[in-house]
Specification:
Layout: H1 13-16, H2 20-23, H3 28-38, E1 43-47, E2 60-64, H4 68-72, E3 98-102, H5 111-120, E4 126-131, H6 146-155, H7 159-166, E5 169-174, E6 177-178, H8 199-203, H9 213-229, H10 231-236, E7 244-245, E8 249-255
Parallel strand pairs: 1-2, 1-3, 3-4
Antiparallel strand pairs: 4-8, 5-8, 6-7
Helix pairs in contact: 5-7
Length: 262
């Protein structure tokens, strides 16, 4: 469905996306993995491009984003994003060297159609940054906000489903999350739990928008009380100095099945 600002998925980015450019900055370590996966592609399609995180500079990037709020937050040095959705890409077959989609496939109303379209218009690798739903609820936040992570786990498609829809040969790579991760998804705060007391930080993680306001208030109160009592640190305090967290984040790199095409 289309939301009021054009958002095509189940989250209304007109309501929750105002702070994305501030809280969802590209994390250099994740960015390096994406650039490596894109290899030497010079023309790249970014589907569900949002505010432009992880778009490589110095390449010819075509960005597609249905949310007006997210398009408006793109930095001036990036191309203007096209208003469109993954399921109906307005491009001819095999136009791009590579395609990418970061933190977006869980929003698509018709996942298979969107991935099929990405494969259709791409000669080389299709690179997807997503989360493994089987690992989402292993994060400590599940102790304080279980409905948030349950919503997140429900929304992310299984890695096997992504593989099947893209065809070809897919490589699934775990993505470690660094301690001071600049990209503010839930697991980015694994060693900085106080950050999740910030309403704008929570709003920049769409899963929080799927619980009632009173439930969110209860969850925040429980986390705050645990931090103030020292209980969080007794249970999870070692994470404050752990350099990286091996969470649910995954990078899927799918190459075309046709022989002779890289």
């Amino acid at each position: 469905m289309r939301q009021t600002d054009g958002s095509a998925g189940d989250a209304n980015y007109g309501a929750i996306g105002q702070h994305y450019a501030r809280y969802r900055q590209p994390e250099p370590l994740i960015e390096a993995l994406i650039l490596d996966a894109l290899a030497d592609a010079s023309t790249i399609l970014n589907v569900g491009a949002g505010a432009g995180s992880y778009e490589p500079r110095g390449r010819r990037v075509t960005a597609l984003e249905p949310s007006a709020s997210m398009r408006a937050q793109r930095p001036a040095d990036l191309s203007v994003a096209i208003d469109g959705v993954a399921e109906n890409l307005p491009f001819p077959d095999q136009l791009f060297d590579a395609a990418m989609a970061t933190f977006t496939v869980h929003q698509w109303p018709d996942l298979e159609a969107g991935l099929s379209e990405m494969r259709r218009v791409t000669r080389g690798p299709v690179v997807i940054l997503t989360c493994d739903p089987d690992e989402v609820q292993a994060f400590w936040l599940n102790e304080y906000a279980p409905e948030v992570l349950a919503a997140e786990a429900r929304r992310y498609p299984a890695i096997s489903r992504l593989n099947a829809a893209l065809g070809g040969q897919a490589d699934v790579r775990p993505v470690p999350v660094p301690l001071n991760c600049r990209d503010g998804f839930n697991e980015a705060y694994y060693g900085r739990p106080e950050k999740l007391l910030d309403e704008a930080a929570r709003l920049s993680c769409s899963a929080w928008s799927f619980v009632p306001a009173e439930t969110e208030t209860e969850y925040v109160r429980a986390l705050k009380a645990s931090l103030e009592s020292g209980d969080w640190d007794r249970r999870f305090g070692q994470l404050r100095s752990q350099p990286a967290y091996p969470g649910s984040l995954r990078l899927l790199v799918a190459r075309p099945a046709q022989p002779g095409i890289r």
